[in-house]
Amino acid sequence: MGGFWLEKEVVKDVSLWVTRCSVLSSFGAHLILALFASIRRREDSAVRRFPVWLAYQVTHLASKLAIGKLYLDSPSSSKQLFAFWVPFVLLHLGLADNISAYSLEDNVLSWRQGVEMVLLLFVALIGAYNQRFMSCDRALCTAFVMIFFLGSYKYVERIWALRLAGFARIRSSYKGMMTRRFSLDQDENAEDRNAELDDYDALRDAHGLFGVSLGAFADYSVKLQEKPEHDPFKTWYSYRSDVVKMVEMQLSLMYDIMYTKAAVIHTWPGYIIRLASPPLTLTALLLFFLHSKDGMGGIDITITYALLIGTFLLDVRWLLRALGSSWTYAFLQDTTRCELLKKTLCCRRGCWYGLRRFVLCLDPSRLWRQGECSHRLWSRTMGQHNLLGECTDGTPMSKIGWDDNSKTKSAGVGSLVEELCADIWPHIFHAYILRRVPEKDMGPMPPQASDRRRSFSEERRFGAEFDELVITWHIATDIFLLGRTETEQDEHCDTFQKIKALSDYMMFLVAKRPEMLPGLKLHSHYEETRVALEGIKSRCNGCTDSQKLADELGKMQHSYSGLLTNKVLRDAVIYAKLLKKLCLAEHVYQEWSTIFGDVVFEVIISRDDEMKDELERRLLILVPKFKNYARPSDGRVRVGWPLEEVLRNFVLQSWVRLLVFGSIRCSRDSHAKQLGCGGELTTILWILAEHKDIINVTKFTKD
């Protein structure tokens, strides 16, 4: 039997090019990470994040391949520069300063990676030593030692950053962190305290109050550094928009802790190594430039120059980035004891601020940024998914941005956050569940905390099947909204758009990101309801869009067997009909039991009190406002409510309640994972709730 054999020279050439390609691939992937890894902070598109993910994988695979191959290769004069590339490969394994982990699981596996790091450092050193090309060349040996030191340090630094990013380590490292507002430290007069925060001041406050977010993610209590009798402004804001902006930037800082090297960069060793890196790399470049190139291949020399020059430029970038970072401002605030020196360094006309402005001027991304701190704001988009639309015209999932709405700009994310903060702000706190017992040294529990604890049993009524409630109310909302006349829809356009955006957003979470909601992750509820809706569509001729399907559902009665087999659709139709009854006529009073019983009987032809009680219980969970109707003092309730009141008090506030509850009860791991994919509105609301003690305002924006 014949075989396929290559000549020895061919095998040798292939081996050489495998090493070269692996080093170049590692370097190219490292550059991609250095330039684009930060887009994960705001980008929630998997397609756009794919190059970063691919570069992350290539960096690890190509670097390990290069080190392993060098270790196994026999000494050769044609490979004398290969050993000099080893330190650069270690630099690549240490990753760029703007990324230490791609996923939250990387932090969990950091001990395994620590063992792997020790083995790779040993293999790299032995492999370079085996080539013995530096034994009689002190200049090149010196350059090798300098770069090897930098590469080893950056690799160890990355592994340590992974360790510091774990929740347990955050808890032990930051538990004693004091919290205060930095933006008040350099105010020249008291009037500044009542002004709205700009992005820069919001970022400074995000650092000062960062302990609140750290405590939320790591699950420990935080005591605010406040002395109301001396300074009532220390932890209170004038406008809710300031708090929202500050929370956005806090989550960006949380991203830095969990997915970048920020925790190790902004320390004395971190600053020292970044100050030393450019001179050391430049020295190595000069030593190689002056070194004789006899016996070296031209392609190998070119690759070496590319590695040296590229590493030097990146070192300069990381140095400027570190010194101009707001993390350096927080570091100076925490480590500088002299108040005069602190003000000289950190005020708006101080040394650090001037350095920061200089660094920002060198950043080409400033050409398309809206502000110097805008990159620290979350993606500011909300996913949208409509179940009726999917079943009729196959409407794909979409997004709305901060100001998206061609007519009124009323249903953009910014407007919805304004709605949450300005009109329904108490929901963020009344729905807040106290999950931690206060520390013994924290003093007695405040009255607000006791109230939240008493509300715990009430909030638990949502149950494990939270997604089922969302689907039910989503369909009921669509049936009710699409059943209104065009005149009514135009007249109440703002409220309609906000309800629609929140409803479709919650449905998007159920369908696309169920991990961002509490309860059991049962996709079967969604699939069963979708199949039932498609069955109804197929039986009803002419259901070509969501409007017609909603009309058919609104007309459904007990005679339609499709509703009897799906509890979600049955409940949704009952609740939609009940909402419709509230708007029948002005000032009509009826018995609640009669109203609710008639609606239930119309759909399921049953007078079963047990079933009716269960439906009523689920309704009161979704819409607590109905309590006033279910248990009135005189037994009679008003039916003829204005449409705007029904939309706001019964529909919109119910969606806000579901959204806030889902945000607070979502797991910390899910919030943390989503930070690496652009963030989510639910995480913003959760951290807003964690800042409850610093919020006592009545406006969203300044008049």
TrEMBL record:
InterPro entries: DUF4220, DUF594. It comes from the Eukaryota. The chain crosses the membrane at residues 17-39, 81-104, 139-156. Keywords: Membrane, Transmembrane, Transmembrane helix. Pfam families: DUF4220 (PF13968), DUF594 (PF04578). Residues 53-388 form the DUF4220 domain. The keyword Lipoprotein does not apply. PANTHER family: OS01G0798800 PROTEIN-RELATED. This is DUF4220 domain-containing protein.
